[in-house]
Amino acid sequence: MVSSWRRWLWVGCLWLALTPTMQAEDGSRLWLRQSAVAAVEVEIPKQSQTLQIAADELRKGWLGQPVSLRLKKEKGVSAEGFSICRREGKVVLTSASETGLLYAAYHLLRLQATAPDNWPDEVIENPSYPLRILNHWDNLDRTVERGYAGRSLWDWEALPSTLSDRYEAYARANASIGINGTVLNNVNASPQILSHDYLLKVQALADLFRPYGIRVYLSVNFASPMVLDHLSTADPLNPTVIRWWKAKVKEIYSLIPDFGGFLVKANSEGQPGPCDFGRSHADGANLLADALQPYHGIVMWRAFVYSPSDADRAKQAYLEFKPLDGTFRSNVIIQVKNGPIDFQPREPYSPLFGAMQHTPLMAEFQITQEYLGHSNHIAYLAPMWKEFFRFVAPSSLKAIAGVSNIGTDANWCGHPFAAANWYAFGRLAWNAELTSEAIADEWLSQTFDTRQTASPTLHTDLRHLMLASREAVVDYMMPLGLHHQFAWGHHYGPEPWCDVPGARPDWMPSYYHKANADGIGFDRSHTGSQATAQYPDSIAALFDDVHRCPDEYLLWFHHVPWNHRMPDGSTLWESLCRHYDQGVQQVRAFQKIWDQSEPYIDRERFLQVQTLLKTQMRDAIWWKDGCLLYFQQYADMPFPADMERPIHTLDELKRVKLSISNYECPTPEELNRQR
Ligand code: BDP
Known about the structure:
Number of helices: 20
Radius of gyration: 26 Å
Mean pLDDT: 95
CATH class of the largest domain: Alpha Beta
Bound molecules: beta-D-glucopyranuronic acid
Low-confidence stretches: 1-21
Helix content: 25-40%
Number of domains: 3
CATH superfamily of the largest domain: Glycosidases
Distance between the termini: 62 Å
């Protein structure tokens, strides 16, 4: 379709524009780093802020033929979807909505960066989910719960009069990957967010985000009527409480007409909720849903509930929510974490998915690496989310949410590779069928220009590193289904020995590993807590049988003797050792791969990743030595001869106490001081 000399000219321009200049980069441009040599002609159907943004993006970055944007409904294309085709010497982008055209513009730029000479004559894209939402766990004092990339982006003090440039850059990055909603504040919500002063600040952000197709949502505290207006109760059936919420919602919509709705953490980890007044989660959710319904707002009600009761923690959300199936209003969506415990490096999927047949559900993924090395470790999470989709059909979900890893750090997410997880979350929310490989391809090409360098292997080597990274973390932290072996509070380093006097037993690692002279692992089979019975029969049969249970979930579902024979003939103890060792060896391999990329990567990002990989390497050894030396006391067996030997003693590691909080990532200095 393009004559060959023109194609070469075009590829040449592209090469010139994209060839890395090797200038230092601070990562602030994320995956949006293209700049065109000369602005192309772009035709828009009418004047609007959104279309202007789309046109400006194309003028800044598109190197091909003139582009025509057309607002038109096409068969097989949803409201936010779009088509791209080449017609009469132009590239024609068509969508029924302005936001769809903005997405089309970003998609065209993505095609140019990732498959410049190899895209089909016609592209049609429709989002997998209508709601693709980031959850910020940002507090009003600008700390970020489980945030490891600086402070909160939202400068509440300065809002609404002063608007940081980063707000629009944030909206742009989200729009470029199709994210269309943002919950601004922590699920452990301050009631203050609903005060009039704060709503004016929220309004300012909503106004900025609107042209980028992003709606604003808020986390709300169930006791807000009591705290803000001194009501004597927050009972969801009390008429005064009902009136309070209706009036509050009316006030919000008078300021933000397209406000998205509420996210609620209730009766969980000390948060107030309807159960405090003898009511159910459905009573609580329906109260808010009724107030929001006239404005088409929604309630995302979290199923992350558990208490220090007799029931296995992994069973509790199901036990509490399954009986409520079908009793929620139609504008309530139950937001369920991917696994039944809490964002561990590996969990089986939560059995609530598939069990709630009459209630819309949405998945909650965690983009911030609370349990995967914070922003110090490379852990590309797309493979973890795809693993979830192997069990939970993407089409069975109503929406998708991801706990954000964004902060004030210049590169947004702390680790240069952590931005890949923000990117991957957006791309999977847009198209759950995309492969982890394809997303890594896109991100690498746009972030490091990996396809434009002289190296024949840089792109594939870095892609390999990304794809192997999450499994490496699982291996050196908690292989074979082990979970929650983290140090108290900050969830960074290993502490299988942790024993905080008086603390909740279900917050102690020993609750989960149950290591003793007989073996290790949590028996959730028919002989134990029977959590396996919460799964559909075919899956339950698989998980319940110690000989059929996939290795990666073995110690999640079974208490297994140390000399149990694994499918490869090794004992459980040997296999555990080999997994830990394998994790460490993988990080050594990542260091080598990264060092070979030096000639092709700008200095600043190269050095930052190189330094972080050293930290990751030391942490991997810390995890391996700490866990294996501790478990060896029970296994009473030697390390396999071919395994890398420990370099620490258990006593030494037991003395490590990082002085960091929920809001921080340990610095190399703090780690060196301790280890
Ligand atoms: C856990 C975090 C905690 C969150 C909680 C939640 O440790 O900080 O508040 O999840 O999701 O992962 O509500």
